[in-house]
Amino acid sequence: MPKISVEIPAELLADLDDHVGDDGKFVNRSDAVRASVRKTLDMLDEIDARHGRLDGDDEGGA
Fold this sequence. Notes:
By secondary structure, the chain is mainly α. The protein has two helices and no strands.
């Protein structure tokens, strides 16, 4: 699995850490970030589908 590096504000990291560990929803930060990215991409796909911007329909290309 490829690794990436990101910079995030301390407040956001502290909020993330509240959900990580034995008492949290995620085993580690990586799991939390992966879940967040996955959910965000799913939400963006739903928005694109509602607006008719499906695969092959984007004009800007990515």
